[in-house]
Amino acid sequence: MQRIKLYTIDLTRSKRRGEFKCPKCGIEISPDDETEDVYTIMEPVMKGDYLEKIILQCNGCGSQIHLVGFHVLNKIA
Can you give the pTM of this predicted structure? Predict the structure, then answer.
């Protein structure tokens, strides 16, 4: 049985516009891609009324990616 790899990506450390590469297979993951061909949104995690993280699954390699750093957006809102 193959284990799922877990990765955490902090979007506040990225100089890009939300896109990033899967840490395992390198496929480009973009928030503009709404097809779910490249990745699947598994679960948004809320903390009260605020988005804490989004859990994605890379469809290329099956890795689970936890996107964090939304606290910056919560401060703006």
Answer: 0.84
